[in-house]
Design goal:
With about 190 residues, this protein is α/β, with parallel strands linked by helices. The protein has a single domain (about 5-175), classed as 2-Layer Sandwich (archaeoglobus fulgidus dsm 4304 fold). The protein contains seven helices and seven strands, in the order βββαβααβααββαα. The chain has a seven-stranded mixed beta sheet with strand order 3-2-1-4-5-7-6, with helices on both faces. α4 packs antiparallel against α5 (about 115-125). The chain is globular and about 45 Å long. The relative contact order is 0.19.
Length: about 190
């Protein structure tokens, strides 16, 4: 992959009832090339829109891939990877970092009625996770519209097991969350 190829990584940080999503454009060469932020409701159903919002705020045609940390940020606010792919017209990859049996049982335990059914409908429509070994670690990847997800993950993971766009996005989201908390405490609330 060319060193100038860009990916948008989207990761979250949350406290209280809102989750901050950090969006970070990173080149395969590890150069950070742009930031955006959005928010979604903890326990809500608006994470898909928030991921798309991170992409659209950047207004960057040069972004080639969208990487999302997991599929259920903000306490089971399930991301519809197919909808993100359709809205961005980019290959979309969800990367998770632990082996698991999935979220179905947890969603069934935590929600009921329409709230449960809506989440399960989105969750069940997502592609299966596939293990990808990278730098002596294993991650689990779901992808939509991507012919070579393992290659993409490896190209954006120069060391360790977390792709650089997701690593930096998580740091940015945490910093924005801390800033928001500090501004809220001082009474001076602004967009991050």
């Amino acid at each position: 992959m060319k060193s100038g190829t860009r990916a948008l990584g989207v990761a979250e940080s949350y406290s209280g009832s809102q989750s901050t999503l950090g969006g970070v454009v990173v080149r395969a060469s590890r150069v950070v090339d742009g930031f955006s932020f959005a928010s979604c409701t903890v326990g809500g159903t608006d994470s898909t829109d928030a991921v798309v919002d991170c992409y659209q705020k950047l207004d960057r045609e040069d972004v080639r891939y969208v990487l999302v940390a997991g599929v259920a940020p903000a306490w089971f606010n399930v991301v519809d990877l197919h909808a993100v792919h359709e809205a961005t017209e980019r290959p979309v990859l969800s990367v998770s970092f632990e082996a698991s049996d999935g979220l179905r049982d947890a969603i069934e335990r935590e929600f009921s009625g329409e709230e449960r059914d809506r989440r399960l409908s989105v969750y069940d429509a997502q592609p299966e996770r596939a293990p990808v070994d990278v730098n002596d670690q294993r991650v689990f990847v779901r992808s939509v519209g991507c012919e070579n997800p393992a290659e993409v993950v490896r190209a954006f993971t120069p060391e360790g097991g977390r792709p650089e766009p997701l690593r930096v996005a998580r740091l940015a989201a945490r910093a924005a969350d801390k800033r928001e908390a500090a501004m809220g405490a001082s009474g001076d609330r602004r967009e991050p």
